């Protein structure tokens, strides 16, 4: 039983699947079926009397023929259990493999996911040129015959609108199936009717043999002849000759820019991605110490579970904790968005990918979706097989907390440039050295490195103002938001001087407070809300920064103008994120899943809490 | 291609094109210099399929065609992160050929 193989042929009707399935029946030891989920029968069961009897025993039904009502009811009630019984029955008769075909509309995504969990299963996708497939289906409807009739003389009229509607729908169905198979890690390959089947039998044998090898089916196929009962439906090579309006239809398709589309097969432009970690080991214990880790954790929905949490130091504490011997959230499904706190363009992503792979393996029905802030980040994730959506944490800033109307702080002197940044070398404060009285706001420099950085800044820029210590009269003074807004009101521009970091939340907050930005080239995503009017990128030199500040001040932008432009960008980016997030939520959790809205997420990126508090909230 | 604002063009845009159809239309529009169709397809693809290889390929072809070398280099780097040698897609093959000829 361990070596028993199962082959699913997936596709849509009229793609040559009868020919392929009849050829697969010729593999030695294979129990070959056709549409096992056809509406009115289990196609192929009628030729396997012994298997039918065993199937009847296993299902506890009377199987008089392949279309018995009791059998079909059992099959439709639990397709996975039916397939299991069919496969088991075939193995019990001494067969070494089973093959069958399933069309897109005959199985749900969750049903397919269940089948894909079977060991020794492999998948062949079968595709065909869209226009030929559609004409073939039309002819089948007209003649009510799909396998036994040469209809070359029949030339139906092509309804272009119907063709496009059906083709778009089939594209979507096939892509969902393909992505589902791809995500499962099950071996799979694509056969194309025109390229691989509608050719000389000898070449066809080679093509099918190659595909069987690729999906791990070692049994050799000895011939690839069509069964005597399968008749080629149309002898015309050119689809225009198969219908009565070929010239008009081709012209119209060309006019719509869709002639190539019509003459291509689906799935041809989908690229493989690295398989998911299907073989990830299920962890033997759950590391509850991880619950004490702090970070940005937000539970968005309890059932289904939807969370937003941070990637910290290339790790997802949530994913690491979810890897355990039993699902972390019972039988609830889940979707977990991961927000970067630092650019992921420079990460190997190794630890993160591994943690996500284990978490998904241990929690069926749960997926992790990192948010990317750039095309390059998306590409990096893709390289390691992780799906992402575009989403920059700066869209979660709260515009009501950062306004342009605060009075200037009374205890500090007004200045041209403000820089809100930790006293770390990578923040590149030295680029502000040529400015007059630059104003620095920073976190408590409670370590030798930060204190040394402060000394270095004082050395190269004697006029620098250290706001937190000036207001603390020599000691560090933490600025609450209202007071920080007052400090922001002292400046005419804000600086962003690092060349690499995260999305730099302070840059977005300054923009909302009406301060335009002088920035140096950087990675990390802080440019999300920039506009040509409100941000100026300068050379990463002290001279460049000084010239940039002078140029921006000369623009004489009002704070209201800067805030208005920023809010415009914020609305656009939030819309894009919501659309993308809800598409993925609906695709994974179904149409009844909660809708992602921004309001509950506002400011969550600064609400530091423990993983435990979020998990407790999800119980 | 037919006029962007024609009745048929408007009707086509009202249909929900599949990903493949949208990419194919965009490719045709680029080849034929149909700016309105190309811009419309780009906007829909950016919104609905931002991480698709074909989107990256078409954005690259557009940037290369417009002579935007900086953008083309960026998009070529993105495209190279896909296994672009494992495809029969004429769109991706076209982008691959242009990229290798111009950027190596």
How does this model look, in words?
The complex is a heterodimer of chains A (619) and B (104). Chain A has 619 residues and is of the alpha/beta class. In chain A, 38% of the residues lie in helices and 14% in strands. Chain A starts with a strand and ends with a helix. With 104 residues, chain B is an all-alpha fold. In chain B, helix 2 runs antiparallel to helix 3 and helix 2 packs parallel to helix 4 (53-65). The longest helix of chain B has 14 residues, at 19-32. The mean pLDDT of chain B is 89.
Helices and strands of chain B, in order, run as: HHHHHH
Indicate the mean pLDDT of chain B. 89
Largest protein interface, residues of each chain: A-B, 39 and 43 residues
Give the overall silhouette of chain B: globular
Count of helices of chain A?
21
Tally of extended strands of chain B? 0
Give the helix proportion of chain B (percent range): over 70%
Query: What is the total tally of β strands of chain A?
Result: 17
Offer a quick outline of the entry.
The complex is a heterodimer of chains A (619) and B (104). With 619 residues, chain A is of the alpha/beta class.
Key descriptive features of the protein:
heterodimer, A: 619 residues, alpha/beta, six-stranded mixed β-sheet, 21 helices, 14% strand, elongated, B: mainly alpha
Write the layout of secondary structure elements.
The complex is a heterodimer of chains A (619) and B (104).
Chain A (H helix, E strand, L loop, with lengths): L4 E7 L5 H8 L5 E6 L13 H11 L9 H9 L1 H14 L4 E7 L5 H7 L5 E7 L2 H14 L16 H25 L3 E5 H5 L3 H14 L31 H10 L3 H4 L31 E8 L3 E7 L5 H6 L11 E7 L9 H13 L3 E7 L2 H9 L5 E2 L26 E4 L18 E3 L6 H13 L4 E2 H5 L9 H8 L4 E4 L8 H8 L4 E3 L15 E3 L4 H14 L3 H31 L18 E3 H8 L1
Parallel strand pairs in A: 1-3, 1-4, 2-3, 4-5, 7-8, 8-9, 9-10, 11-12, 11-14, 12-13, 14-15, 15-16
Antiparallel strand pairs in A: 6-7, 6-17
Helix pairs in contact in A: 2-4, 3-4
Chain B lengths: L6 H8 L4 H14 L2 H14 L4 H13 L3 H12 L9 H13 L2
Helix pairs in contact in B: 2-3, 2-4, 4-5, 4-6
């Amino acid at each position: 039983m361990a070596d028993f193989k199962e082959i699913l042929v997936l596709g849509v009707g009229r793609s040559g699947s009868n020919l392929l399935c009849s050829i697969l029946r010729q593999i030695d030891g294979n129990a070959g079926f056709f549409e096992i989920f056809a509406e009115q029968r289990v196609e192929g069961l009628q030729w396997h009397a012994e298997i039918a009897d065993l199937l009847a025993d296993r299902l506890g039904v009377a199987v008089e023929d392949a279309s018995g009502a009791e059998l079909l009811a059992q099959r439709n009630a639990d397709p996975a259990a039916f397939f299991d019984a069919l496969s088991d029955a075939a193995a019990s008769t001494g067969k070494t493999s089973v093959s069958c075909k399933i069309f897109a509309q005959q199985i749900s995504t969750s049903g397919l996911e269940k089948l894909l969990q079977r060991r020794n299963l492999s998948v062949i996708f079968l595709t065909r040129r869209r226009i030929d497939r559609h004409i073939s289906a039309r002819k089948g409807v007209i003649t009510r015959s799909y396998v036994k009739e040469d209809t070359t003389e029949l030339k139906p009229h092509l309804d272009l609108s119907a063709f496009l509607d059906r083709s778009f729908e089939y594209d979507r169905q096939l892509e969902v199936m393909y992505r589902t198979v791809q995500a499962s890690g099950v071996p799979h390959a694509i056969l194309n009717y025109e390229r691989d089947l509608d050719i000389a039998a000898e070449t066809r044998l080679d093509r099918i043999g190659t595909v069987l090898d690729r999906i791990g089916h070692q049994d050799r196929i000895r011939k690839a002849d069509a069964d005597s009962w399968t008749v080629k439906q149309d002898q015309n090579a050119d689809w225009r000759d198969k219908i009565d309006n070929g010239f008009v239809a081709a012209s119209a398709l060309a006019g719509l820019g869709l002639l190539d589309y019509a003459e291509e097969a689906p799935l041809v432009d989908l690229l493989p991605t690295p398989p998911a970690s299907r073989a990830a080991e299920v962890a033997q214990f759950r590391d509850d110490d991880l619950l004490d880790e702090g970070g940005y954790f937000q539970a968005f929905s309890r059932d289904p579970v939807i969370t937003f949490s941070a990637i910290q130091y290339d790790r997802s504490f949530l994913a690491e904790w979810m890897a355990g011997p039993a699902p972390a959230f019972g039988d609830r499904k889940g979707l977990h968005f991961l927000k970067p706190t630092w650019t992921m363009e420079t990460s190997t992503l190794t630890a993160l990918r591994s943690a996500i792979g284990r978490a998904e393996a241990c929690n069926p029905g749960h997926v992790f979706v990192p948010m990317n802030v750039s095309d390059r980040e998306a590409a990096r994730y893709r390289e390691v097989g992780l799906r992402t959506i575009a989403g920059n944490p700066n869209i979660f800033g709260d515009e009501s907390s950062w306004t342009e109307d605060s009075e200037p702080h009374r205890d500090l002197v007004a200045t041209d440039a403000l820089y809100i940044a930790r006293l770390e070398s990578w923040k590149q404060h030295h680029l502000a050295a040529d400015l007059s009285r630059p104003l620095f706001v920073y976190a408590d420099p409670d370590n030798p490195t930060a204190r040394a950085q402060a000394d270095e800044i004082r050395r190269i820029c004697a006029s620098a103002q250290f706001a937190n210590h000036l207001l603390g009269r020599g000691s560090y003074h933490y600025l609450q938001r209202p007071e920080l807004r007052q400090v922001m009101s002292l400046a005419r521009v804000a600086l962003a001087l690092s060349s690499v970091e995260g999305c730099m939340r302070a840059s977005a907050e300054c923009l909302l407070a009406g301060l335009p930005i002088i920035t140096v080239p950087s990675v990390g995503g802080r440019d999300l809300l920039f506009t040509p009017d409100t941000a100026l990128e300068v050379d990463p030199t002290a001279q460049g920064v000084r010239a940039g500040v002078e140029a921006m001040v000369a623009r004489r932008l009002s704070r209201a103008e800067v805030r208005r432009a920023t809010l415009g960008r914020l609305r656009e980016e939030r819309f894009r994120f919501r659309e993308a997030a809800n598409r993925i939520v609906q695709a994974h959790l179904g149409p009844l899943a909660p809708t992602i809205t921004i309001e509950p997420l506002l400011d969550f990126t600064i609400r530091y809490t423990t993983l435990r508090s979020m998990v407790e909230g999800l119980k | 291609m037919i006029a962007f604002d024609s009745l048929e063009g408007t009707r086509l845009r009202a249909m929900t094109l599949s990903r493949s159809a949208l990419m194919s239309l965009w490719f045709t529009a680029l080849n034929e210099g149909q700016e309105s169709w190309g811009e419309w397809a780009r906007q829909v693809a950016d919104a609905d399929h931002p991480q698709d290889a074909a989107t990256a390929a078409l954005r690259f072809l557009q940037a290369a065609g417009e002579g935007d070398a900086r953008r083309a280099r960026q998009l070529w780097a993105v495209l190279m992160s896909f296994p672009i040698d494992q495809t029969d897609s004429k769109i991706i093959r076209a982008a691959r050929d242009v990229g290798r000829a111009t950027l190596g």
